[in-house]
Design brief:
With 393 residues, the chain is an alpha/beta fold. 43% of the residues lie in helices and 18% in strands. The protein has 15 helices and eleven strands. It has a six-stranded mixed beta sheet with strand order 7-6-8-9-10-11, sandwiched between helices. Strand 2 (47-51), helix 3 (60-77) and strand 3 form a beta-alpha-beta unit. Helix 3 packs parallel to helix 4. The longest helix is centred in the C-terminal third of the chain and has 23 residues, at 297-319.
Length: 393
């Protein structure tokens, strides 16, 4: 069975002396639980695996009960070390508080119990960890399958990857596009919106949240006017839209790429450019088949640009760099990447008529360290999608 890169990271962490609570995060259907189970089969240590998905109305008390089972088992068996694994941790409200409390109790009483939790989306609330509470957690981020993984494991060519995206569980049914679309809608979109995106807070309109996702997925890679966005979303305010995008972004489904600016706040007031994390999420709303899309160059250009963008924001999630776009009048840079002061400018030249003069203007104003053209006159899409983007910084 194929082992993703994170397999070695997780295995290495669990073989080390007890130090941090390991938190495996990422979108649905990318293989988080599969990777964890692969590691458990290879570890030479006792463990207990629990899933919050099977417990209705799961709360912190359930987590403490799981912990009690492990403590009792470890003591009764006389084991020196034991591993506690909790899957679907996002089902437990404020889970990090009770996990941290139990972890610290083990630390105080010298119980050698290692802990790994798995959750859909970005389950660690960064705003709550500005001080010491986050020090006991280590986050291992997983994201959607890339072109090389889909090629090597399922025989996808570049065009298939750009159209169907990278969901390994659905790779075998792409020959039946209706079935494929239904699978992605039910197991990814609906499951995420119903189970992973909180809808009981200030943003409590699930229908409008779904409309936001459908609009963003359909128009992935494009910059829409405020009037078109508000018209499509029944006059929802831009503040509400930003809140929905933030929820969908945390779930690894849809990002709202902001305009690049040296100022840390000025770009956030602009119109976001929609970008899916996986082109399958764009494909399910397309009226065209794979063959029709290949023949229609305008439609295919949208899929190409969205596919490049999906790879970029997935890499940004894993390697923790920022992604923007830049536009002034008729000049544009499709993606601007920034990490620790290093800036990279990228233009996707999806057809021969698309101008790249925006790169020179951007260079003159912002002086990026690296500039890339993907397409005519630059590197190929296949080469870019095979690139380790961390090396750009």
């Amino acid at each position: 069975m194929y082992q993703r890169h994170e397999y070695l990271v997780i295995k290495s962490r669990l073989e080390e002396p007890r130090k941090f609570i390991q938190v495996v995060t990422g979108p649905r259907q990318v293989g988080k639980t599969t990777v964890v189970k692969q590691v458990l089969q290879e570890l030479n240590a006792p463990y207990q695996f629990f899933s919050a998905d099977t417990v209705p109305e799961t709360d912190g008390a359930w987590v403490s009960e799981c912990w009690a089972v492990v403590r009792n088992l470890k003591e009764s068996k006389g084991w020196d070390c034991m591993l506690l694994v909790i899957d679907e941790i996002q089902k437990v409200p404020n889970w990090w508080e009770v996990v941290k409390k139990e972890w610290e109790d083990d630390t105080f009483h010298n119980r050698n119990i290692k802990v790994l939790v798995v959750g859909n989306g970005r389950v660690l609330p960064e705003k709550d960890f500005s001080e010491s509470p986050g020090e006991c957690f280590e986050e291992i981020r997983m994201t959607h399958w890339n072109y090389l993984e889909m090629r090597d494991n399922f025989g996808f060519n570049l065009d298939q990857y750009l159209f169907y995206g990278g969901y390994p569980g659905a790779a075998s049914i792409v020959c039946d596009e209706t079935w494929y679309q239904q699978y992605i809608r039910s197991t990814v979109v609906e499951a995420t919106i119903a189970n992973d995106v909180p809808t009981d807070g200030p943003l409590c309109n699930p229908a409008q949240l779904r409309q936001t996702f459908e609009l963003g997925a359909t128009c992935s890679g494009q910059l829409l006017s405020p009037a078109k966005i508000q018209g499509a979303l029944q006059d929802a305010s831009m503040t509400t839209l930003a809140g929905y995008i933030q929820l969908l972004d945390a779930a690894g489904m849809l990002s709202g790429v902001q305009k690049y600016s040296i100022s840390p706040t000025s770009g956030k007031s602009g119109i976001p450019k929609f970008q899916v994390y996986n082109n399958a999420l764009k494909m399910i709303y397309s009226p065209c088949t794979f063959e029709q899309t290949i023949r229609d160059r305008k439609v295919w250009c949208h899929f190409l640009e969205s596919g490049i963008g999906a790879y970029i924001i997935c890499q940004a999630f894993v390697h923790r760099f920022e992604v923007f776009y830049w536009r002034e009048r008729n000049e544009e840079v499709d993606f601007v990447l920034r990490k620790k002061g290093t800036v990279v400018a990228i233009v996707v030249k999806s057809d021969a008529t698309k101008a790249t003069t925006g790169l020179e203007t951007f260079k003159r104003i912002f002086n990026p360290q690296t500039m890339l053209i993907i397409g005519d006159g630059g590197i190929s899409a296949k080469e870019f999608l095979s690139m380790d983007m961390e090396k750009l910084f």
